[in-house]
Amino acid sequence: MKKVLNLYAGIGGNRKLWKDVDVTAVEINLNIGKIYSDFFPNDELIMEDAHQYLLEHFNEFDFIWSSPPCQTHSQIRFNLGVKNRNTKPIYPDMKLYEEILLLQNYFKGRWVVENTRSFYDPLIKPQYVGSHYFWSNFSIASFSIGSRNHRNGTVETLQERKKLTIDNYDIVNKRQILRNCVEPELGKHVYDCAFKIKQKKLGLSGTDERRMDQ
Questions:
Q1: Residue 30: enclosing H or E segment and its boundaries?
Q2: Residue 137 CA to its chain's centroid (Å)
Q3: pLDDT, tens digit, for every residue of 102-138?
Q4: Which residue among 9, 39, 110, 160 is buried most deeply as judged by most CB within 10 Å?
């Protein structure tokens, strides 16, 4: 059984379809962490800063998935907010690249760092799969997930899309929480590519990333 570190775990979209794994999840938000624990009661949940936890514990795992906050890098924030709505510019959070460089140079297992498509040319070239940027030490095969319906999606449609239901939780900004989730099919695909696990047909194939909806 692989020991897996799931950083910035959120409510666990990327983790939902992983099987036969020993997962340590790190999520600093108490309310979101509670939902994650309800969904994945057998995972160990660490309520700490994921960036610091990675630095101190990276060599304890076989596979690391990190999804650092994407808002400061997002092309959507830049194109819709800064350009059209006078949203204030902010510094991109360079923890993203700190983690990539740490894992590239020090970690011996399989790893992936996931983020949104950025408004600038990435400082380190990623793979672009399923409308996400992925930096990793393995090749991720092309994977089409159809429309993500993020821009116009409601809580109801996003719950159906992400296969996670949070209706019963008293938590603010449910739509953003769901938008932050990686689609479970894509999370499984990336994990399977890391260990060359034979893919089962999910009826989700193709290579045309231009159709993907942010």
A1: helix 30-39
A2: 16
A3: 999 999 999 999 998 898 999 999 999 998 999 999 9
A4: 9
In angstroms, the CA 15 to CA 1 distance is 15
Whole-model pTM?
A: 0.87
CATH of 2-211, one of 3.40.50, 2.60.120, 1.10.10, 1.10.287: 3.40.50
Residue 97 corresponds to which amino acid? Y
Share of the chain above pLDDT 70, in %: 85
Bridge partners of 21, per DSSP, are 2
Of 150, 10, 129, give the one whose Cα is nearest residue 67: 10
Structure tokens at 24: 């340590």
**32-40 contact pairs (CB < 8 A, 24+):** 32/171, 32/177, 33/9, 34/169, 35/11, 35/166, 35/169, 35/171, 36/9, 36/10, 36/11, 36/12, 39/11, 39/12, 39/164, 40/12, 40/15
Q: Return the domain boundaries, the chain.
A: 2-211
User: How are the residues of the chain apportioned to helix, strand and coil, as percentages rounded to the nearest 5?
Assistant: 35, 15, 50
* Six-digit token string for 41: 């009661």
Helix (H) or strand (E) holding 184: helix 184-194
Residue 197, amino acid: I
